[in-house]
């Protein structure tokens, strides 16, 4: 089993530097998800690990071996990505079998591996069709099949199910990750979707503009974000963010009254602080400080939108039955626990601890 490590990895296109001194460690057999908004550089980084893109600086190791200068074929790593080039005049089975070209598999075994992979990816019905005749979702699953059939020790999948319909995508991604876990594969999975990252990962690497914003276990990132960016990016439903004034050891939160500034943050007296409050951490209490302007029943409870005092509307999520909750237009009060506030420097976005 091989892990992957990156040390001070840099990528430049001419004078433009897009990746800045990235350090990442992916343990052997781990499911590591690279996630970030568009342009965060996850694809470029994954292509560099696979050897499909040259590095401009730094070191990439697969297992104990420095592979920075090696070609893709010498790295023992397989990557599938959305634009993977299938051979249009070959069938699904023949395209999947191309994934076995680089390894020594007997013909009989190869046919079995291809059939098993196709069955797993729900491609049995079109196994002998030429891929040029297939719709995009089947072509994407064929490309994925070509990547997973070989059972490489390190696999890189960049949005491997992006064009699948929602139901199949959800079912297949769980099954896919479980299958790869069972075989001890080290998996690096790229996505723009934080919910997908939270579901699949042993470890998440949040990327932003070519830098690692934070890396860690999903629950750690969610409960203990280092930056406002990570807190907002991973929050579902969206984090409530307020700009609070800190004075004389107290925070004034627009529309929510005052809260004590922790003693070790007294240096911030006289400044403003960004305060994050999760919708799950706000509770309704009798009162009239806020007006209900929206009510949505979602899977995990009811989401209420409340306006009052502050410059932005607040979201409250409650598991209370919808019938017990105020109607749109009604007034209510809000309560929160001081220890649930996440405090950030509004300029650097760093967490104030
Ligand atoms: N060949 C290139 N020349 C110049 N800039 C490039 C090149 N390839 C990528 N970039 C830039 O590098 C940055 C990262 O691109 P990349 O494709 O890795 O982003 P991404 O986070 O994977 O997003 P997406 O998945 O949406 O493409 C972007 O700002 C992009 O414009």
UniProtKB/TrEMBL annotation:
<keyword id="KW-0547">Nucleotide-binding</keyword>
<dbReference type="InterPro" id="IPR013611">
    <property type="entry name" value="Transp-assoc_OB_typ2"/>
</dbReference>
<dbReference type="Pfam" id="PF08402">
    <property type="entry name" value="TOBE_2"/>
</dbReference>
<dbReference type="InterPro" id="IPR003439">
    <property type="entry name" value="ABC_transporter-like_ATP-bd"/>
</dbReference>
<dbReference type="InterPro" id="IPR008995">
    <property type="entry name" value="Mo/tungstate-bd_C_term_dom"/>
</dbReference>
<dbReference type="GO" id="GO:0016887">
    <property type="term" value="F:ATP hydrolysis activity"/>
</dbReference>
<dbReference type="InterPro" id="IPR027417">
    <property type="entry name" value="P-loop_NTPase"/>
</dbReference>
<keyword id="KW-0067">ATP-binding</keyword>
<dbReference type="InterPro" id="IPR047641">
    <property type="entry name" value="ABC_transpr_MalK/UgpC-like"/>
</dbReference>
<comment type="similarity">
    <text>Belongs to the ABC transporter superfamily.</text>
</comment>
<feature type="domain" description="ABC transporter">
    <location>
        <begin position="4"/>
        <end position="234"/>
    </location>
</feature>
<dbReference type="GO" id="GO:0005524">
    <property type="term" value="F:ATP binding"/>
</dbReference>
<protein>
    <submittedName>
        <fullName>Lactose/L-arabinose transport system ATP-binding protein</fullName>
    </submittedName>
</protein>
<keyword id="KW-0813">Transport</keyword>
<dbReference type="Pfam" id="PF00005">
    <property type="entry name" value="ABC_tran"/>
</dbReference>
<dbReference type="GO" id="GO:0022857">
    <property type="term" value="F:transmembrane transporter activity"/>
</dbReference>
<dbReference type="InterPro" id="IPR003593">
    <property type="entry name" value="AAA+_ATPase"/>
</dbReference>
<dbReference type="GO" id="GO:0055052">
    <property type="term" value="C:ATP-binding cassette (ABC) transporter complex, substrate-binding subunit-containing"/>
</dbReference>
């Amino acid at each position: 089993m091989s892990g992957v490590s990156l040390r001070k990895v840099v990528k430049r296109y001419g004078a433009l530097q897009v990746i800045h001194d990235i350090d990442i460690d992916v343990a052997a057999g781990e499911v590591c998800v690279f996630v970030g908004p568009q342009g965060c550089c996850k694809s470029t980084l994954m292509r560099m690990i696979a050897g499909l893109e040259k590095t401009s600086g730094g070191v990439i190791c697969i297992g104990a071996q420095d592979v920075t200068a090696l070609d893709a074929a010498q790295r023992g790593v397989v990557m599938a990505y959305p634009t993977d080039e299938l051979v249009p005049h070959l069938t699904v089975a023949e395209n999947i079998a191309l994934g076995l070209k680089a390894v020594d598999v007997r013909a009989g075994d190869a046919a079995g591996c291809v059939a098993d992979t196709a069955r797993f990816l729900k491609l049995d019905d079109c196994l002998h069709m030429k891929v040029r005749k297939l719709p995009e979702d089947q072509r994407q699953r064929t490309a994925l099949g070509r990547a997973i059939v070989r059972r490489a020790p390190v696999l890189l999948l960049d949005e491997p199910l992006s064009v699948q319909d929602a139901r199949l995508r959800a079912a297949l991604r769980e099954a896919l990750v479980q299958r790869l876990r069972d075989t001890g594969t080290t998996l690096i999975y790229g996505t723009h979707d934080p919910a997908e990252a939270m579901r699949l990962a042993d470890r998440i690497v949040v990327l932003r503009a070519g830098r690692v914003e934070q890396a860690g276990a999903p629950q750690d990132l969610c409960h203990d974000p280092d930056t406002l960016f990570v807190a907002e990016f991973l929050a579902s439903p969206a984090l409530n963010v307020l700009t609070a004034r800190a004075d004389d050891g107290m925070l004034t939160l627009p529309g929510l009254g005052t809260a004590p500034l922790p003693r070790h943050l007294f240096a911030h007296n006289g400044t403003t602080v960004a305060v994050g409050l999760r919708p799950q951490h706000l509770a309704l209490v009798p009162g009239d400080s806020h007006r209900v302007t929206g009510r949505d029943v979602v899977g995990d409870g009811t989401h209420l939108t409340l306006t009052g005092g502050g410059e932005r509307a607040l979201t409250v999520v409650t598991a209370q039955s919808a019938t017990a909750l105020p109607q749109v237009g009604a007034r209510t009060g809000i309560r929160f626990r001081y220890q649930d506030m996440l405090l950030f420097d509004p300029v650097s976005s760093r967490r104030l601890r």
